[in-house]
From TrEMBL:
Gene3D superfamilies: 3.30.530.20. Residues 12-117 form the Activator of Hsp90 ATPase homologue 1/2-like C-terminal domain. Belongs to the AHA1 family. This is Uncharacterized conserved protein YndB, AHSA1/START domain. It holds the Pfam family AHSA1. It comes from Chitinophaga niabensis.
């Protein structure tokens, strides 16, 4: 299956976008695809070889999952790449523009799940991030 790439423009400076993307206290506030979900726990050791854990759960208790892996690249204000525990890889590129910061996320899709659903899920999380950050500024 081909990699999936999604991107979003956040109307905020790169340094702010990086901070909100990487600090656990902020991740708890934006890492969900909709108001029906939330992230209940975050651990983030943002360094090459460091690990991360985001526990995402449906607010009604009907389901949830752990999003976990190890960082392969951490290039401050530029790139974060990681390998998930199932072996899939992903990369986030942060680019300052005249009107804000573009985040481009490219990831290997999970086998057995429709690629379009995975793309929409990722896009929804990026939209929540954008709404959170722009609401703070």
């Amino acid at each position: 299956m081909e990699n999936i790439t999604v991107n979003i423009l956040v109307h905020a400076p790169l340094a702010e976008v990086w901070k909100y993307w990487t600090e656990p206290s902020h991740i708890l506030n934006w890492n969900q695809p909709s108001e029906d979900w939330h992230t209940s726990r975050v651990e983030n050791d943002l360094r090459v070889g460091g690990s991360f854990l985001y526990v995402m759960e449906a607010k009604d208790g009907s389901g949830g999952f752990d999003f976990t892996g190890v960082y392969d690249v951490v290039d401050h204000h530029r790139e974060i790449s990681y390998t998930l525990t199932d072996g899939r890889t992903a990369t986030n590129i942060f680019t300052q523009t005249e009107t804000g910061t573009t985040i481009t996320e490219t990831f290997e899709p999970e086998k057995g799940q429709p690629a379009k659903d995975q793309e929409l899920f990722c896009t929804a999380i990026l939209e929540c991030f954008k709404k959170y950050v722009e609401g703070l500024l």
